[in-house]
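Need tokens for this chain, all 430 residues.
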Amino acid sequence: MHNIQLAAGQIVQQVLADGRNLNQVLEESLRRKAVWTPAQRAALQDLSYGTLRFYGQLRALLGLLLYKPMLDQRIYYVLLVALYQLQYSKAAQHAVVDHAVRAAQLLNAKVSGLVNAILRNFLRSRDTLLEQAAQHEEGKYSYPQWWVDELQTQYGEHSTAILEAGNLHPPMTLRVNRRRGTTADYLAQLTALDLSAQVIEPDALQLGKPVAVDKLPGFFDGMVSVQDAGAQYAAHLLDAHDGMRVLDACAAPGGKTAHILECAQVEMVAVDKDEKRLQRVAGNLKRLKLDAQLLAGDAAQPEKWWDGRPFQRILADVPCSASGVVRRHPDIKWLRRRTDIAGFAAQQLDILRALWRLLAQDGKLLYATCSVFQQENEQVIAAFLAQQPDARRLSVVLPEHSEGQLLPNDQHDGFFYALLHNRGQKTDGR
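Here are the structure tokens for all 430 residues:
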């Protein structure tokens, strides 16, 4: 187990100190550990994700336990991982401490005794230390202070629920391919395999607990996909019909592209700036036996890839802060900066303006983000509508009376949707 602690500490260090993407670092680490068992690999993922999910609290706790700065940063990150285990895992406390000491001995034998003392001090004084850590909002919520401030300003008393939802383990939600069967039929197949699930949307089933995709009946035959329930609203809101020409801009990894094709027989064009990620779209479509024209290109520069034929429907699933999906990507909380949000908003407005030129008269464009920050959502739409007289915002039907903003909860992540109608040349001011 000490080897798993060591590896998790290295991953967390690369994310926090070097600013690297968690998924990428974890993937690289697992590639080097081909001989590890599935249980060891799963434990490494849990420790890496969990430590980053609660980093704010863990950092505050370690600050209270350390009388002076830890000179060897490798030990510092092993201690963070061990504190996460002691606070949130079911592992035996004595085993966690013992493994952390052994890990420290491999890195720097001089401080192994200090590691033992720090962790045992935490166990002796846990309640007091947790209360002290929670006196500051970073330690209480495990988010950067600017993030907490932003949500409190925007959502007031509802901000706490948003912050807490972002620290939950994300649910595993399936999207049933309606071309291959009904949600009720697939639920029956899951029940027959003793896999608990509940219907939460027309095409969406939420599993009682996550399973590997190879345990899902018909997954590799295209009967079902893994997709958050909030993301599944996109295809329905876009309202595409048979025979329409549809564009999915910023399409990778292709979940929404595929869902649109499952809902209607359309001529689909999927564009993404990243050719490597576009390969994932191709893989998803192949598994689902769906067809689309895939183009590598920048959504903000359609003149480089557009053939001049207008689209009746456009999905603008624009790059964003991903602040609504932090429970799936906890590194985002610590890699984002407040100044990043304005940059995303400017990019989003540029893409929206560029794609609007591709929309047919009487067509609809769905603007989508996985953000909860208004600067990327309502403010972008307001700025666009002020500049575009032929654009009209349509109402969207979403739960929670959200007016386009889905906030993360136990059934879905955080998303924002705005449906825009191209009403043609403005003539009478209405």
